Amino acid sequence: MFRNVVAVLCLALPLASGPAPPHDPAPSSVDAFVAAYREATGLPGAAVAITHGRRVVHAAGYGETASGEPVTADTPMAVASVSKSFTSLAVMQLVEKGEVELDRPVRGYLPEFTMADPRAARITVRQLLNQTSGMADSAFREKSLPQPDTLEGAVARLRTARLATEPGTAFSYHNTNYQVAARLVEVVSGRPFGAYLDANVFTPVGMRDSRTVDTDRDLPGSARGHLVVLGRAVAVPEPAGFGNGSGGILSTAGDMARWLIAQNNGILSPQSVKEMRTPSEQSGEYALGWMIGRTGRGTPVVQHDGDLFTSTAAQLLMPESGYGVAVMANTGTAFGDADALMDGLVAMIEGGTPEIPSSPPFLVTDILFALLTLATAGLAVRGVARARRWAATHSRWRLLPYMVPLVLCVMVVPIMRVLLRGGDIMWVQVVYLYPTFMIWLVTGAVAGTAVAAARLWARRRASMEIVVE
């Protein structure tokens, strides 16, 4: 631990004035940064890959998986929506072969793609990949509807769906776009999506430990993740969901290093690479499975993040210097550990200082809600014990405020959808995002209902006793 702290402090020495040119961070400095970050945040495990041109600068694993095994450079972990870059590549390979045209309607290649909206016939392949198809969570509740088991099923459940906007007029990040794109690859190539990726992406690139899965049930122990509650990581299963094509790839630090190198090594023609890295006018930053942006120091980057409720991932390319970074972390989207580690590693490449959090995320908030939960439970016990005394002096209408937590429990999903601007979410997913708050809210709902029921029962008994007398 002391060596880790010293190494990180060394990274913080004053830099010469002016921006430093990108350079390889020392593997020992990377290890020290990740170790210090994990110690500060309680992050159980992570995997990191840094490349430069055709070289692997560093690829390593840290900590433990949810099943207690050490994370190494060869441990398969979930990359979540980073998978979209792979799906886009698969489509672009078919484009280069002349089997698919980006600006041709999807239905020309995938006749089974039908919706209860005639405008869907105009959705093009490009609009799937840059997320301007008109499909959106606000019109199709992809997460809260029954989940499919296959890509074919993911497309079939669209038959009763409608579009939120006219195709090509608005950007909306929607996983179903990429599930339809992956199914298109299956139909055009005549092979299951996983088999296509293995033969045309993973094997040629040398990603021997990577694969794609359909649902949360297919995640191996190494790819399962955690919530962090009161500063402690708790291994939990991923909420039920379908992710093939949009977020189903499992990979390792070593394989992601090979993937990053392949982006600078002729994996596609220069024209196809340009297509993949040209954002739509509607979003200004989302291209075909990649996002275009800049680092805090202004360096142009091509990147994509990935979020599950129990793990996160991130990848980034710096085209001008040829650097690439990939990170997988086994905590969920509420904590943003992959992005935070990515920011630190990019800062090191750019000659800056990586930031180390001072404490686990939301620790103070968790403590507050834990205390509120205990206080709520204690007040409920007191309220039930004094129900008879209360019933003798109060009107039953005074019980209405006790039902507010129950109403909030019932309404939490609609409220969250408003806060997410139409984004879809399930009740259990809200629990994963805000565990201590939801524990307090459920405790409050149970406590309020119990107190109200006890006091109503006490009033009834008191009334019956009066009648008997």
Q: Could you outline the blueprint of secondary structure elements for this entry?
A:
Blueprint: H1 2-11, H2 27-41, E1 45-52, E2 55-63, E3 77-78, H3 83-96, H4 125-129, H5 151-156, H6 175-189, H7 193-205, E4 211-212, E5 225-229, E6 232-236, E7 249-251, H8 253-262, H9 270-276, E8 291-294, E9 300-307, E10 312-318, E11 323-329, H10 337-349, H11 363-385, H12 387-391, H13 404-419, H14 427-433, H15 435-468
Antiparallel strand pairs: 1-2, 1-11, 3-7, 4-7, 5-6, 8-9, 9-10, 10-11
Descriptive overview:
The protein is α+β, with helices and mostly antiparallel strands. The protein has two domains: about 10-350, DD-peptidase/beta-lactamase superfamily (Beta-lactamase, 3-Layer(aba) Sandwich); about 365-469, no CATH class. The protein is about 40% helix and about 15% strand. The protein contains 15 helices and eleven strands. It has helices at about 1-10, 25-40, 85-95, 125-130, 150-155, 175-190, 195-205, 255-260, 270-275, 335-350, 365-385, 385-390, 405-420, 425-435, 435-469, and strands at about 45-50, 55-65, 75-80, 210, 225-230, 230-235, 250, 290-295, 300-305, 310-320, 325-330. A hairpin with a 5-residue loop joins strand 8 (about 290-295) and strand 9. The radius of gyration is 26 Å and the shape is globular.
Strand residue content: 5-15%
Number of domains in the coordinates? Answer: 2
Mean pLDDT: 92
What are the low-pLDDT stretches, counting only 5+ consecutive residues below 50?
Answer: 1-18
Strand order of the largest sheet: 2-1-11-10-9-8
Domain Beta-lactamase-related: 30-334
Organism: Nonomuraea spiralis
Protein name: Serine hydrolase domain-containing protein
Enzyme class: hydrolase
